[in-house]
C-alpha cells in the first residue's frame, strides 16, 4: 500500500506523464482559439515570398532597436497597398523565431494576419486576434515548464478574452517569457479608440510588460496611440532591389534568356526601366509586356505606360497598371477563363476559403461550352495559363491571386470585368451534381467526408447567395430550375452553407467540437423556399409557380416562402412577386411570427411598407420594433 502512495506522491511532484501533457496542451490550445489557422496562413505567406524581398527591413536600425530594447515596445509600420508589408511580416516572424532559438533570452513570437479590412470598430472585434495570440504563445511553452502545467491544471473550461481568466493566462505568459513579439499584419483603417483598447489589453502600457508589438498597415500612425505607448513609426516603400527581384521571377526559366536570344544586359535595363515606373510598389504586370519591351522593337510598351503615368497621382498609377493587366487578360486567348478564375479566387479570399487546382478545374468542366472548350487537361496546365496572375502554393496546392492590388481593382470593377452569370451557372451546376442528390449527410463525420471528397462544396454553398444579388436571373434560370427540382439537392446545399467553412480537417474538427453545425440547416425547403432564401427575383418565382410551386407551402418550421424572403435586406422584388401570387401576409410560423415581424428585424424598410400595404397587422411587439426601426 505504501508503494502506491509513494508512486502517487512522485506523480504529484513530477506532474502528468509527457504524452498526457502533449494531449492536454492540445486541448488547452483548442479552448483558447478553436479553429485557429494563424500558423497555416503564415506558412502560405512565406511560400509566396520572393527570395529575400524585404531584407532591408531587418537591417533597419529602427526595427533592430524595437526588437532589442525595452524602451520602444511599439512600432507602427505603414505604407501604401502592395509595398511588401505581408512579405516583411513573414520575414520578420522567421527572423525573430530563428533568433529565439539562438538566444538565451526566453522569447515567443505570435502573428495575426487580419482579413476583415475596416471592420474593427470596438475591442470586441479584436477578440479573435487576442485569443489567437494567446494560443500561439502557449504553443511555444516548453512541455517541461511549470507555467504550462499550471495552465493545464487550471479549473477553467473556457478561456475568454473578456473575462478575468484571460488576464490570468496572460500574466502567466509574461512571467515566463522575457519578450513576447506580436506581429500584426494587414490591420487597415481600424477605429483609433478600439485599437488603443486592443493594444492596452496586451498590457503594452505597462513598462514591465514583455510584449513588443509591430503593426504593418496601410493606415498612417495614430499620434495618440504612439504617444500613449511610447511608440515609433516607419514608412515602407519597396526598394529598387526588391522590385527588380520581383520582375525577374518570370525570366528564371525563360528559354530565350538561356539561349542568348535575349541578352542579360538588355533584360536588366528593361527591368530597371519598369521598376522605375512602379512607384515603389509591386504592380501587376503581364509577362509578355515585360518580355516584348526588353527587345528594341518592343520598347514602346514601357514608353507608352511612362507617358500615361507622367501626370498621374499614386492612385491613378496603380489603376493604370491594373487596367493594363486586365486588358492583357481579356485580350488573351484564355481571357474569359482567367477572369472567371480570378473572380472565384477573390470570392474565396473574402469568405476565407482555400481553393486548389482540382476545386477550380472540375466545376469549370461543367460550365458552358465556350468556357469548357478552353480548359486545360490538367491542373498544372491550368496553372500555367494563369501563371502571370495566380500563385500556387506548392506544399498545399492552394491558389491565390499574386497581386492584392489587382484583386482589389477587379473587385471594385465587378460590373465591368466580372463574369457573374458564368460563375453562378457554374455554382448551380456543381451543387446539382449526382453525388449531392442523396441529400444532407446524417452525421458530422459524414459531412466532413463529403467536404473532403468535394473540395469546392463549402465554397460553392457559402458563396451562392452572395453571387445571386448581381446576376441576370434569366441567364441562370435553367441551371436554377434544375438545381431546385430535387429537394435532396436543396438539403445538401443548405447543410453545407450553414456548416463551418471547410479548409482543412484539423481546424474544422476544433470548430465542430465547440458547436456542431452539421445539423442546423433549415429543413423542408421547397423550390420556392429556396428562391425566397436566395432572393431569386420575379422571373424565377413566376416560373416556379407556373410549374406548380405552392406559395403557401410550409417548411419544417411552418414557414412559407414569404417568411423566408422577409429575412433578406434586398429581396423586395422576390417578396413583391410572392405577394402577386397570393402569399398570405398573416401566416404564422411555429414561433408565432408573421413575415412582418421578421422583416422588422432583418428585412428592409421597403419590405415592411409592402407587407403593411398588403394588410399585415402589427401586434404589440411589432409596434415596438417599428418604433425602434423608425428611431434608427
From TrEMBL:
Domain Nephrocystin 3-like N-terminal: 54-218
Pfam family name, one: Ank_2
InterPro entries hit by this protein: Ankyrin_rpt, Ankyrin_rpt-contain_sf, NPHP3-like_N, P-loop_NTPase
Coiled coil: none
Start and stop residues of the ANK repeats: 523-556, 557-590, 591-623
Keywords carried by this UniProt record: ANK repeat, Repeat
Full protein name: Nephrocystin 3-like N-terminal domain-containing protein
Lineage: Eukaryota, Fungi, Dikarya, Ascomycota, Pezizomycotina
Amino acid at each position: 500500500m505504501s508503494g502506491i502512495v509513494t508512486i502517487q506522491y512522485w506523480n504529484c511532484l513530477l506532474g502528468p506523464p509527457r504524452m498526457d501533457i502533449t494531449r492536454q496542451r492540445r486541448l488547452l490550445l483548442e479552448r483558447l482559439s478553436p479553429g485557429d489557422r494563424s500558423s497555416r496562413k503564415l506558412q502560405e505567406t512565406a511560400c509566396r515570398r520572393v527570395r529575400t524581398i524585404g531584407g532591408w527591413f531587418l537591417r533597419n536600425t529602427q526595427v533592430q532597436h524595437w526588437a532589442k530594447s525595452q524602451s520602444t515596445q511599439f512600432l507602427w509600420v505603414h505604407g501604401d497597398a502592395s509595398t511588401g508589408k505581408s512579405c516583411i511580416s513573414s520575414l520578420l516572424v522567421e527572423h525573430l523565431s530563428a533568433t529565439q532559438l539562438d538566444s538565451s533570452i526566453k522569447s515567443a513570437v505570435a502573428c495575426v494576419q487580419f482579413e476583415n479590412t475596416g471592420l474593427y470598430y470596438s475591442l470586441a472585434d479584436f477578440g479573435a486576434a487576442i485569443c489567437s495570440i494567446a494560443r500561439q504563445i502557449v504553443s511555444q511553452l516548453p512541455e517541461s515548464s511549470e507555467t504550462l502545467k499550471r495552465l493545464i491544471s487550471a479549473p477553467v473550461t473556457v478561456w475568454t478574452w473578456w473575462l478575468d481568466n484571460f488576464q490570468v493566462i496572460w500574466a502567466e505568459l509574461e512571467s515566463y517569457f522575457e519578450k513576447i513579439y506580436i506581429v500584426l499584419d494587414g490591420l487597415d483603417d481600424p477605429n483609433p479608440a478600439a485599437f488603443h483598447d486592443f493594444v492596452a489589453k496586451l498590457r503594452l502600457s505597462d513598462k514591465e510588460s514583455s510584449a513588443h508589438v509591430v503593426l504593418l498597415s496601410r493606415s498612417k500612425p495614430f499620434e495618440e496611440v504612439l504617444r500613449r505607448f511610447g511608440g515609433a513609426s516607419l514608412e515602407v516603400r519597396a526598394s529598387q532591389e526588391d522590385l527588380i527581384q520581383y520582375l525577374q521571377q518570370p525570366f528564371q526559366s525563360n528559354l530565350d534568356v538561356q539561349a542568348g536570344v535575349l541578352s542579360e544586359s538588355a533584360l536588366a535595363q528593361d527591368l530597371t526601366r519598369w521598376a522605375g515606373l512602379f512607384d515603389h510598389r509591386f504592380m501587376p504586370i503581364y509577362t509578355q509586356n515585360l518580355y516584348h519591351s526588353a527587345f528594341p522593337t518592343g520598347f514602346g510598351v514601357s514608353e507608352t505606360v511612362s507617358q500615361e503615368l507622367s501626370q498621374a497621382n499614386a492612385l491613378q498609377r496603380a489603376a493604370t497598371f491594373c487596367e493594363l493587366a486586365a486588358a492583357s487578360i481579356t485580350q488573351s486567348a484564355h481571357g474569359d477563363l482567367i477572369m472567371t478564375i480570378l473572380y472565384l479566387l477573390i470570392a474565396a479570399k473574402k469568405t476565407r476559403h482555400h481553393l486548389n487546382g482540382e476545386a477550380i478545374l472540375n466545376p469549370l468542366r461543367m460550365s458552358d461550352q465556350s468556357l469548357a472548350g478552353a480548359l486545360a487537361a490538367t491542373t498544372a496546365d491550368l496553372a500555367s495559363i494563369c501563371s502571370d496572375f495566380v500563385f500556387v502554393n506548392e506544399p498545399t496546392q492552394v491558389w491565390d491571386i499574386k497581386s492584392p492590388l489587382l484583386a482589389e481593382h477587379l473587385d471594385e470593377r465587378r460590373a465591368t470585368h466580372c463574369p457573374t452569370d458564368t460563375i453562378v451557372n457554374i455554382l448551380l451546376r456543381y451543387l446539382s451534381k449526382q453525388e449531392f442528390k442523396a441529400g444532407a449527410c446524417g452525421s458530422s463525420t459524414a459531412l466532413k467526408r463529403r467536404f473532403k471528397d468535394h473540395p469546392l462544396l463549402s465554397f460553392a454553398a457559402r458563396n451562392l447567395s452572395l453571387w445571386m444579388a448581381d446576376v441576370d436571373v434569366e441567364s441562370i434560370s435553367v441551371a436554377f430550375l434544375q438545381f431546385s427540382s430535387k429537394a435532396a439537392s436543396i438539403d445538401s446545399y443548405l447543410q453545407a452553407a450553414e456548416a463551418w467553412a471547410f479548409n482543412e480537417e484539423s481546424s474544422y474538427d476544433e470548430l465542430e467540437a465547440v458547436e456542431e453545425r452539421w445539423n442546423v440547416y433549415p429543413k423542408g425547403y421547397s423550390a420556392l423556399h429556396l428562391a425566397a432564401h436566395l432572393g431569386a427575383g420575379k422571373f424565377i418565382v413566376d416560373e416556379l409557380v407556373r410549374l406548380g410551386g405552392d406559395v403557401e407551402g410550409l417548411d419544417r418550421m411552418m414557414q412559407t416562402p414569404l417568411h423566408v424572403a422577409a429575412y433578406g435586406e434586398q429581396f423586395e422584388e422576390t417578396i413583391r412577386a410572392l405577394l402577386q401570387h397570393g402569399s398570405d401576409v398573416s401566416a404564422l410560423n411555429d414561433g408565432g411570427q408573421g413575415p412582418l415581424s421578421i422583416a422588422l428585424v432583418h428585412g428592409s424598410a421597403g419590405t415592411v411598407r409592402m407587407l403593411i400595404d398588403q394588410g399585415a397587422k402589427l401586434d404589440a411587439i411589432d409596434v415596438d420594433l417599428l418604433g425602434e426601426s423608425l428611431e434608427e
